[in-house]
C-alpha cells in the first residue's frame, strides 16, 4: 500500500544490448513486462528502420495465419486457445514455422480449390438437371406445334428458301434479380424475334462458394435465325447466365446427369474428408504459432526503437523502468545474454523528461485506481488519490443508497463474485456487462458493506424501520399527560407527540434514526432535512481533504509558493463559505432544542442573507454579532478569488523576469544548473528530436508570459487537484445533490409500500 | 429548394456531410507524399500506406505487388465509400450522386465499344472499367452497331438515356464516331447536370456551378487541342462544346476557329481565370495543359469544403480522392519503373 501513496520512482535506463543477444534480451524483457521502450528513431519512417525486413516476414506469416484462420472458421470449427507459456521463438525457428504453415496453407489451398471445382461442377450439373426438369417443355412443345401448324403451308412450299428454317433453343439459368433486365434486354435487342419463358426454380440450390441456398431463374428461349442466336448468346454471356445444351431426348439426358452428379458427390465427400483432416492439423498448429509470431513481431518492433552504437557491435535502447525493478532487470539481462556468451549492460542515466506515471495495483485496488484514472492520470510522483477513494467512493455511494436489505443483497452478490474469482469460467465470460460487474467486484463489495452501515444509521431495511433498541419516544406518556379519551382518539387519525411534554422524549436513540419516525407523517421531511445537512457536511469535509492532499504535492515538488498562493486561498474560500455553513448546521443542532423550536432561526435564510449583506427581521440571529462575522467571511472569500486566479502566474512571471535580467551568457549554465544533470541520453548526440526539444526550450524562454500562463493553467488542472475539484462539483456546488439522491432512493419505495 | 438550406439541410443530409468531411480529412497530407516519394519499392509504399487511413487494404494481395493491383484496390475502396453515401442518401442528394456516376458510365460505355471495335474480349475490358460507373447492361454494349441501336436496346433504362437525344444516328460505330459519341454524351451530361445544380439553387448552385463551368471549359479546350490535325470539321467541333461556362458563347465561337495551340492561348488570354493557367504551362517542372487544369480543379474542390450545407462536398471529395489515387499510381509507376526523375510531378492536394 505504501506504493499507492504516490506513483513509483521511475528511472531512465540505458541498455546496451550486444547484437548477438539483443533479440533474446528483448524477448525476455517482454515476458517480464518491466520496462517501457522509448522510441529513439522517431524521425526515421517505418520502412527505413533496421529490422523492417523481419517485421515484414512476420507480417507475411500473419497473412498466412489469417488465411488459415478464415478457412477454419468457414468450416465452422473453433480454434482452441493456446496453452502454456509460449516465449518468442528464436529467429531461426521462424523459418521452421514459416515452412510448416506455408506447406499447410498450400495443401489447404489445393484441397479447397479441388473442393470448389467439384462443387462448381456439381452445381452446374444440378442446375442443368433443374433446367431440363423445369417443365418448359410442355408449353414449348405446344408453341412448337402451334407454330408448326401455322407455318405448315409456308414450309411446304416446294423449293422455298426457308426449307431449313427451324426453331432453335437456348436454355439456361440466371440469378433472379437479373432476370427482368435480361428479359427486357432480349426483347428490345431482338425486336421480339424470340419466345422466352422464365421460371423460378422450386428448390433452392447451394451456392458453390458460399454454400448458401440460392434460387435461380431458369429460362428457355426459342428463336429463328443465326443472327438472332448470336445476339442472344452475347446477351446471355454478359448477364453471366449458365447456358446448357437443350436436346430433344431429355429423359435419357436427365438420367445420365443424375448418375454423373452421384459420382461427383462421392468424390466430393472424399475431398471434404481430407479437407477436415487438414483443418484438424491447422487447429493444432495455429494457436501457438500465432502467439509466437505475434511476440516475435513485437520484439522486432521494440528493436526498431533502438539505435545502433557507433561500433555496430551493440544496440542501444532507452527504457523507463521502476527503480525498484532495476536489480530484476539487470538479472534478466545477465541471464539472457549469458547464453550467447556476451553481456548486456543496463545502467541508469539522468533524464530531464518527465518519467511516466507508474502505480502498481492488485486485484483489490485496480478498480479504485481505474475510477481515479478516469478523471485523469496523475503526473509522475504526484499524490495518488486512489487509496482514499477506497473509503470515500463506497461511502459516498452508501450515503445515497443507505438500506440494510439492499446493501446486503449487493454485498452478497459481490461476495459471490469475489469467492468465485479464481474459476476460469468467470474470467472467460465474454459478456460485456458481466465483465464490468466482475471487474468492479471489490468496489461492489465495499459499496454493499457501506450501504449496510448507512442503512443502519437511516434505520432502513427494505425501506422498513427495525427497532433494535426501545424507541426514545413514549406514546403512553403523551396519552397520559394530554388525557386522550377514546372519543378523541376515534375522531383524530393524526396525533402529535410533543417533546416538550415531560416523559414523551426520553433521549436520543442509541444508533441512527429512531424507528418511531417511520410512523410519523412528517417522516420524509424530517429525513430529507437530516440527509441534506449531512451531505453538506460530508461534501465540505471531502473537499477540504482534497485540498489538503495538494499540500503533499507542493511540498514534494518544492513549490512552496503554491502553498501560499493556492492552497491557502482555496482553503479560506472553501471553509469561509461552506465551512461556515457546516458550522451553522452543527451550531444549530447543539444550541437549538425542542423547547425553543417554534422560534428557531432558519439557516437557509441566514446563508442567503450572508451573500446579499442583508437581514430579515423575522429571522432571529443565531449568535450575537453574527452579521459582522458573516460580512467579514464573505469579503475574505471574495478577496481570495483574484489571488487564486493570478497568484501563481504572476509569481512565475516575476521569477522568470528576475532570471532574465542576469547576463545571457550565464543562462545556459543556469539552466543546466537548475536541471542539475548532464545530458547523457543518446538523443543528445545530435539526433533531431532532441534538437527540436531544445528549440522549444529556447522558444519558451523568448515568450515568457504566454507560456508561463499556459503552464500555470496546466498545473492548475493537475490530477489531484482535478480530482478534488471534480468531487467539489459532484458533492458540493450543487450541494444538495446527495440529499435528494438519498431521498430519491427512499421515497418511491415508501410510497410503494404505503399502497 | 427554398432559400435557407442551413435550416433543414442537416435533417436529411447532415450525417452524410459529416461523413464526407471526415473522409476528406483522411486524404494524404504533404508529409505523407514526401514519405511516399522516398520509397524504394512498392512494398515500402505499401507499408507506408498502411500507416495512413488506407489501412491494410493491400493485406490480402498475393505477391508480387503491382501498380494495377494497388489501383484496383484503391478504386474498390472509393467505390465502397461512394456506395455507402449513395445507399444512405435521400432525394435530391441521391439524384445528385447518380449524376456523378454518369460520367463514369459514359467512359465505361465508350471503353467497351472501343474494345469491341478492336475485337478484344469483354472480360479484358471489364477490368479496366471504373467501378463507379458499373451497371448491369454494360457488358451488352458490344451488340449494338449504331448509336440508336445502342440507345434503344441497352441504355434506354439507364440514367444515361436522357443524354442520347442529340446523338441518335445510324452511322456505323467506327473510332471517330465513338469519340464523337463520347463528346456529345458528355456535353449533354454536363449541361443536364449544370441545369440540375442551377435549379437546385442555394449554396449547392453557388459551389457546383463554377466547378461544372470549369469542367465545361476544360473540355472545350481539350477537344480543341485534340482536334488539331484530325479530319474533324470546325462546325462539328463547335457542336461538341458544352453550351455553358465562362467561355460560352464568344469564347467557344473563337475556339471553334482556332487552328493551333497559340491561337488557343490567345483566346484563353481574354479570360482572367485561364490566362495564368496557360502561362504556367511548361514552367517549372515542364507542366502540361492537363497538369495545370488538374491543379486548378483540385484548388476548386478544396475550396468547396469551405462552404457548408451543400452537395458540392460529395463531388469535391470524389474528385479529390481520384486525384489522390492518380498521384499514388503515378508515384507507384515511377517507383516500379525506376524512373525517379519525374516522381515529384504529382498534383499536390492542399
TrEMBL record, chain B:
Pfam families: vATP-synt_AC39
Alphabetical list of Gene3D superfamilies matching this protein: ATP synthase (C/AC39) subunit, domain 3 (1.10.132.50), V-type ATP synthase subunit C domain (1.20.1690.10)
Keyword Transport (UniProt): yes
InterPro entries: ATPase_csu/dsu_sf, ATPase_V0-cplx_csu/dsu, ATPase_V0-cplx_dsu, V-type_ATPase_csu/dsu, V-type_ATPase_csu/dsu_dom_3
A Gene Ontology molecular function term of the record: proton-transporting ATPase activity, rotational mechanism
GO cellular component: apical plasma membrane; early endosome; phagocytic vesicle membrane; proton-transporting V-type ATPase, V0 domain; vacuolar proton-transporting V-type ATPase complex
Keyword flag Transport: yes
Family assignment from sequence similarity: Belongs to the V-ATPase V0D/AC39 subunit family.
Quaternary organization: V-ATPase is a heteromultimeric enzyme made up of two complexes: the ATP-hydrolytic V1 complex and the proton translocation V0 complex. The V1 complex consists of three catalytic AB heterodimers that form a heterohexamer, three peripheral stalks each consisting of EG heterodimers, one central rotor including subunits D and F, and the regulatory subunits C and H. The proton translocation complex V0 consists of the proton transport subunit a, a ring of proteolipid subunits c9c'', rotary subunit d, subunits e and f, and the accessory subunits ATP6AP1/Ac45 and ATP6AP2/PRR.
Function comment: Subunit of the V0 complex of vacuolar(H+)-ATPase (V-ATPase), a multisubunit enzyme composed of a peripheral complex (V1) that hydrolyzes ATP and a membrane integral complex (V0) that translocates protons. V-ATPase is responsible for acidifying and maintaining the pH of intracellular compartments and in some cell types, is targeted to the plasma membrane, where it is responsible for acidifying the extracellular environment. May play a role in coupling of proton transport and ATP hydrolysis. Regulator of osteoclast fusion and bone formation.
Protein name stated in the entry: V-type proton ATPase subunit
Organism (species): Callithrix jacchus (White-tufted-ear marmoset)
Amino acid at each position: 500500500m505504501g506504493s499507492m501513496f504516490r506513483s513509483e520512482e521511475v528511472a531512465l535506463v540505458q541498455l546496451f544490448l550486444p547484437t548477438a543477444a539483443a533479440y533474446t534480451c528483448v524477448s525476455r524483457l517482454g515476458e517480464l513486462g518491466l520496462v517501457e521502450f522509448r522510441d529513439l528513431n522517431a524521425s526515421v519512417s517505418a520502412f527505413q528502420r533496421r529490422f523492417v525486413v523481419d517485421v515484414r516476414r512476420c507480417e507475411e506469416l500473419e497473412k498466412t495465419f489469417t488465411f488459415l484462420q478464415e478457412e477454419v472458421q468457414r468450416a465452422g470449427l473453433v480454434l482452441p486457445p493456446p496453452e502454456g507459456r509460449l516465449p518468442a521463438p528464436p529467429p531461426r525457428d521462424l523459418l521452421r514455422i514459416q515452412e510448416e504453415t506455408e506447406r499447410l496453407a498450400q495443401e489447404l489451398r489445393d484441397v479447397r480449390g479441388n473442393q470448389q471445382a467439384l462443387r462448381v461442377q456439381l452445381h452446374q450439373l444440378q442446375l442443368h438437371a433443374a433446367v431440363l426438369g423445369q417443365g418448359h417443355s410442355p408449353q414449348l412443345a405446344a408453341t412448337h406445334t402451334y407454330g408448326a401448324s401455322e407455318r405448315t403451308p409456308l414450309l411446304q412450299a416446294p423449293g422455298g428458301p426457308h426449307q431449313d428454317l427451324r426453331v432453335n433453343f437456348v436454355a439456361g439459368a440466371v440469378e433472379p434479380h437479373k432476370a427482368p433486365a435480361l428479359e427486357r434486354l432480349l426483347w428490345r435487342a431482338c425486336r421480339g424475334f424470340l419466345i422466352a419463358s422464365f421460371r423460378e426454380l422450386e428448390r433452392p440450390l447451394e451456392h458453390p462458394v458460399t454454400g448458401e441456398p440460392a434460387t435461380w431463374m431458369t429460362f428457355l428461349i426459342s428463336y429463328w435465325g443465326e443472327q438472332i442466336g448470336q445476339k442472344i448468346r452475347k446477351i446471355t454471356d454478359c448477364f453471366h447466365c449458365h447456358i446448357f445444351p437443350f436436346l430433344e431426348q431429355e429423359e435419357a439426358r436427365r438420367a445420365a446427369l443424375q448418375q454423373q452428379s452421384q459420382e461427383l458427390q462421392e468424390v466430393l465427400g472424399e475431398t471434404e474428408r481430407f479437407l477436415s483432416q487438414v483443418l484438424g492439423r491447422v487447429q493444432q498448429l495455429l494457436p501457438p504459432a500465432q502467439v509466437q509470431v505475434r511476440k516475435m513481431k513485437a520484439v522486432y518492433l521494440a528493436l526498431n526503437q533502438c539505435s545502433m552504437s557507433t561500433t555496430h557491435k551493440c544496440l542501444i535502447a532507452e527504457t523507463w523502468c521502476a527503480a525498484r525493478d532495476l536489480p530484476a532487470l539487470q538479472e534478466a539481462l545477465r541471464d539472457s545474454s549469458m547464453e550467447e556468451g556476451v553481456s548486456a549492460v543496463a545502467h541508469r542515466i539522468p533524464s530531464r523528461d518527465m518519467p511516466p506515471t507508474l502505480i502498481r495495483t492488485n486485484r483489490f485496488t485496480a478498480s479504485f485506481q481505474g475510477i481515479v484514472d478516469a478523471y485523469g492520470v496523475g503526473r509522475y510522483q504526484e499524490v495518488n488519490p486512489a487509496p482514499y477513494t477506497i473509503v470515500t467512493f463506497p461511502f459516498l455511494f452508501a450515503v445515497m443508497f443507505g438500506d440494510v436489505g439492499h446493501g446486503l443483497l449487493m454485498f452478497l452478490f459481490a461476495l459471490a463474485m469475489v469467492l468465485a474469482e479464481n474459476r476460469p469460467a468467470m474470467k472467460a465470460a465474454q459478456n460485456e456487462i458481466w465483465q464490468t460487474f466482475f471487474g468492479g467486484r471489490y468496489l461492489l463489495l465495499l459499496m454493499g458493506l457501506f450501504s449496510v452501515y448507512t442503512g443502519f444509521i437511516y434505520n432502513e431495511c427494505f425501506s422498513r424501520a427495525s427497532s433494535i433498541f426501545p424507541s426514545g419516544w413514549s406514546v403512553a406518556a403523551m396519552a397520559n399527560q394530554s388525557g386522550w379519551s377514546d372519543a378523541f382518539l376515534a375522531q383524530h387519525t393524526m396525533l402529535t407527540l410533543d417533546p416538550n411534554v415531560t416523559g414523551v422524549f426520553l433521549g436520543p436513540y442509541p444508533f441512527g434514526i429512531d424507528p418511531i419516525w417511520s410512523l410519523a407523517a412528517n417522516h420524509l421531511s424530517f429525513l430529507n432535512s437530516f440527509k441534506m445537512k449531512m451531505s453538506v457536511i460530508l461534501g465540505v469535509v471531502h473537499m477540504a481533504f482534497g485540498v489538503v492532499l495538494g499540500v503533499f504535492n507542493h511540498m514534494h515538488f518544492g513549490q512552496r509558493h503554491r502553498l501560499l498562493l493556492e492552497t491557502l486561498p482555496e482553503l479560506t474560500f472553501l471553509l469561509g463559505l461552506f465551512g461556515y455553513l457546516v458550522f451553522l448546521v452543527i451550531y444549530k443542532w447543539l444550541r437549538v432544542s425542542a423547547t425553543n423550536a417554534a422560534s428557531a432561526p432558519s439557516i437557509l435564510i441566514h446563508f442567503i442573507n450572508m451573500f446579499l449583506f442583508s437581514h430579515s427581521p423575522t429571522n432571529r440571529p443565531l449568535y450575537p454579532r453574527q452579521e459582522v462575522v458573516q460580512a467579514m467571511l464573505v469579503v475574505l472569500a471574495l478577496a481570495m478569488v483574484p489571488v487564486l486566479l493570478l497568484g501563481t502566474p504572476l509569481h512565475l512571471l516575476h521569477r522568470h523576469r528576475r532570471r532574465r535580467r542576469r547576463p545571457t551568457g550565464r543562462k545556459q549554465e543556469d539552466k543546466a544548473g537548475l536541471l542539475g544533470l548532464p545530458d547523457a541520453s543518446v538523443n543528445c548526440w545530435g539526433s533531431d528530436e532532441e534538437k527540436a526539444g531544445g528549440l522549444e526550450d529556447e522558444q519558451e524562454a523568448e515568450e515568457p508570459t504566454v507560456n508561463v500562463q499556459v503552464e500555470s493553467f496546466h498545473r492548475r488542472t493537475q490530477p489531484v487537484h482535478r480530482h478534488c475539484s471534480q468531487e467539489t462539483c459532484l458533492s458540493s456546488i450543487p450541494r444538495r445533490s446527495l440529499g435528494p439522491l438519498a431521498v430519491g432512493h427512499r421515497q418511491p419505495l415508501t410510497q410503494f409500500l404505503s399502497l | 429548394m427554398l432559400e435557407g438550406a442551413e435550416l433543414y439541410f442537416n435533417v436529411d443530409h447532415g450525417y452524410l456531410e459529416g461523413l464526407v468531411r471526415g473522409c476528406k480529412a483522411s486524404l494524404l497530407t504533404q508529409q505523407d507524399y514526401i514519405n511516399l516519394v522516398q520509397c524504394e519499392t512498392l512494398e515500402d509504399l505499401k507499408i507506408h500506406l498502411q500507416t495512413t487511413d488506407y489501412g491494410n487494404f493491400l493485406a490480402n494481395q498475393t505477391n508480387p505487388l503491382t501498380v494495377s493491383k494497388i489501383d484496383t484496390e484503391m478504386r474498390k475502396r472509393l467505390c465502397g465509400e461512394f456506395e455507402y453515401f449513395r445507399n444512405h442518401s435521400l432525394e435530391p442528394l441521391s439524384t445528385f450522386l447518380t449524376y456523378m456516376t454518369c460520367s463514369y458510365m459514359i467512359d465505361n460505355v465508350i471503353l467497351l465499344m472501343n474494345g469491341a471495335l478492336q475485337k478484344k474480349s469483354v472480360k479484358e475490358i471489364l477490368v479496366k472499367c471504373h467501378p463507379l460507373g458499373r451497371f448491369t447492361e454494360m457488358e451488352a454494349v458490344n451488340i449494338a452497331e449504331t448509336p440508336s441501336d445502342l440507345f434503344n436496346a441497352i441504355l434506354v433504362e439507364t440514367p444515361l438515356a436522357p443524354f442520347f437525344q442529340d446523338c441518335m444516328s445510324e452511322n456505323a460505330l467506327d473510332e471517330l464516331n465513338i469519340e464523337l459519341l463520347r463528346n456529345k454524351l458528355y456535353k449533354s451530361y454536363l449541361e443536364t447536370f449544370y441545369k440540375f445544380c442551377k435549379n437546385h439553387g442555394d449554396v449547392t448552385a453557388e459551389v457546383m456551378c463554377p466547378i461544372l463551368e470549369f469542367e465545361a471549359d476544360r473540355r472545350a479546350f481539350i477537344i480543341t487541342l485534340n482536334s488539331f490535325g484530325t479530319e474533324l470539321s470546325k462546325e462539328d467541333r463547335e457542336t461538341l462544346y458544352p453550351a455553358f461556362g465562362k467561355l460560352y458563347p464568344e469564347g467557344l465561337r473563337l475556339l471553334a476557329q482556332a487552328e493551333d495551340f497559340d491561337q488557343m492561348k490567345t483566346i484563353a488570354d481574354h479570360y482572367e481565370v485561364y490566362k495564368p493557367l496557360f502561362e504556367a504551362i511548361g514552367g517549372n517542372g515542364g507542366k502540361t495543359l492537363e497538369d495545370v487544369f488538374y491543379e486548378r480543379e483540385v484548388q476548386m474542390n478544396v475550396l468547396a469544403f469551405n462552404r457548408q450545407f451543400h452537395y458540392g462536398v460529395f463531388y469535391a471529395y470524389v474528385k479529390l480522392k481520384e486525384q489522390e489515387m492518380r498521384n499514388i499510381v503515378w508515384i507507384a509507376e515511377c517507383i516500379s519503373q525506376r524512373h525517379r526523375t519525374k516522381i515529384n510531378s504529382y498534383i499536390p492536394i492542399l
